[in-house]
Every structure is written in structure tokens, then in C-alpha cells.
Amino acid sequence: MADDPYQVLGVSRDAPDEEIRRAYLKLVKELHPDVNPSRPAAERFKKVTAAYDIVGDPGRRRQFDRGEIDAGGEPRRYASRRHAGAGSARGPWSGGRFQFDDIGEVFSDLFGGAGPRPRGGFSTRGRDVRYTLEVDFAEAVQGARKRVTMPEGGLLDLVVPEGVTDGQVLRLKGKGQAGLAGAEPGDALVEIRVRPHRDFRRERDDILIDVPITIDEAVLGAKIEVPTVSGRVQLTIPKGTNSGQVFRVKGKGVRNLTTGTTGDELVTVRIVLPEDIDESLSYFMTEWRKKRPYDPRGRG
After folding, report:
1. Do residues 235 and 276 both lie within one domain?
2. Is residue 66 part of a domain?
3. Is residue 85 in a domain?
4. Inter-residue contact 51 to 90 (CB < 8 Å)
5. Residues of the domain holding 152
6. For position 171, which CATH number holds?
7. Burial of residue 208, with CB atoms counted within 10 A of its CB: 0-12 exposed, 13-18 middle, 19 or more buried
8. DSSP letters of 162-190?
9. 231-237 and 246-249: which strand pairing?
């Protein structure tokens, strides 16, 4: 025998229709299989929808209150054939009293407004799930295999493609929550956050870095090692190099998977003086300035 629908919904017999509707929507949001997949919740969900099928329809509610139908919606033996045939439409999505706005309200809250709305039952696409994944600068440039821990404790393996940018969202088809009643699962949306690097910066597909050089390397020229994401390379510094001059190291930037091209590394050299200016350097510069004065700020 079916339970009393008023008790199932937790409302009094004289509750207004709107109060019954609010109680039903609240319970649906708590017990929906996509939110609470446990067996007890599923059984209670069935009872709640059956109860609302009786008292959520004003006509059937009057029949129940008059004793013409029982809690399962079946006509009582003493009810007239005319009353017994009234309001025979059954089911949580039928009967004409569960309006489209009710469906929209329930599923907007359950699924964030995404995915198709149900037709003829509770079949609906699974919810998308969102995660944030932090990666190192080098991993963003070169690509990496990473593992994301889901809120419920599961693990999600994914490939971070080379050249991924900060804030880019990777969509993993079918890795979201399971669909209901055979519907397709949702997707996993993984937002990439690239940790700043101590030395490197990125500008589109180029990588930028500042490299210090000594005063004698700037004056006399030199071969120096500079770091890149993939390792260290040699860079030739010509005689008379000024601080702030930029050198291009071809192909040491970011590979663009869309265009198939690879950026460069742009090396800006900065002349750094020694911490202690000794007497010999001071004397040399003093004599040199007397013999070869020049004004780099002068106008030509």
C-alpha cells in the first residue's frame, strides 16, 4: 500500500498548492539520482514523485481528499465509475500538472542549465565537471602527462599539449558525470594555470629572458651559455655590445600546434658591473675617459 502523499512530501493536508510544489522541488533536488545515487535515495525519489502525482494535481488531490482514490491513485471500490476514471494520467512527467517551468527549475539547479532537458522521463546528459590544473612553465611549453584528483577521490589522467597557454581550457569528452537513464556523460573541463618562471617570460610563441654579461664581454665580445627551456645553448656576443641589446635564438620558443611553427627565444643582455670597483679598473677608466671622451646622450 502506498504511503500517505502528504506525509511523503512533509506537508500538512491543508497546505496550499504552492507549498506542496516547493516541498516537491526541494526533495527532487536532494534525491535526484545524479545528485544522490544511493539505493535508499532512489526508492524515496520514486515515492516522492508518486506522492506529487497525487496531490500536485488539484483535481486528483480533491479526489484523494474525498476518498475517491487511494494513495496509489487507484479508485476505491465504493467510488463511482465517473470519479474512478478521472485524472487517470500517471507518472511524474505527465498528468498535465507538472509544468515545463517546474522541469526547468529542477534541472537548472541540478545541471546548471546545461544539457538537454528531459523528455518522457529523467534521461539527461551528464553534468560537465570543472577542474583547475597548475603546470610548470616548461610543462606548458613542452607538454606533459598529468593526473588530476577529482573531488570524489577518483583520478583523471590527461595529456597537456605542448604550447598550452595560461587560462586555456582543455575539454575531455565523456570524462564528466555519467548521464541518466542511458544518456551520454558530460565532459571534464580542465583550466590550465601556468606557474610563473623565475627567468623566462612568454610573449605569444616567443620566450623572453634577460641575461647578464660583464663589462669586458660587452667590450671585447665573448661566447656565453644561455638557458633555454630545452637546455643551455651558446650565444656569441660581438664586440661593443650594448646593455639592452636583443639576440634571437631561432627555434627555442614555443611550438604552435595550430600553425605548425615554433617561436624563438629572445635574449636581452644586461651589462652588470662587479660589486667592487678596484683601483686598477678605476685608474684605467679614468685615463681612458681623458683620452677618448664621448657622450652617448648627446644629440647628433
Report:
1. yes
2. yes
3. yes
4. no
5. 129-194
6. 2.60.260.20
7. middle
8. TT--TT-EEEETT-SSPPBTTPPP--EEE
9. unpaired
Grid coordinates in use for 26?
526541494
Distances in Å between the Cα of 126 and the Cα atoms of 183, 184, 297 are: 7, 6, 67
Beta strands at 188-194 and 169-172: parallel, antiparallel or unpaired: antiparallel
C-alpha grid cell for residue 85? 476514471
Position 179 scores a pLDDT of 77
Tens digit of each residue's pLDDT (9 = 90 or more) over 13-53: 999 988 998 898 888 778 876 667 788 887 888 888 888 88
Asked if residue 247 belongs to a domain, the reply is yes
Q: What would the pLDDT profile of 144-171 be if each residue is shown by its tens digit?
A: 998 877 766 678 788 999 999 998 998 8
At 84, which CATH number?
A: 1.10.287.110
> What DSSP state is assigned to residue 2?
P
Q: In whole angstroms, how large is the CA radius of gyration of the chain?
A: 36
Residue type, 85: G
**Cell numbers standing for residue 149:** 584528483
pTM score of the predicted model:
0.55
Q: Note the residue count of the chain.
A: 300
Helix crossing, 39-55 with 17-31: angle to 10°? 160
User: Is 42 within a domain?
Assistant: yes
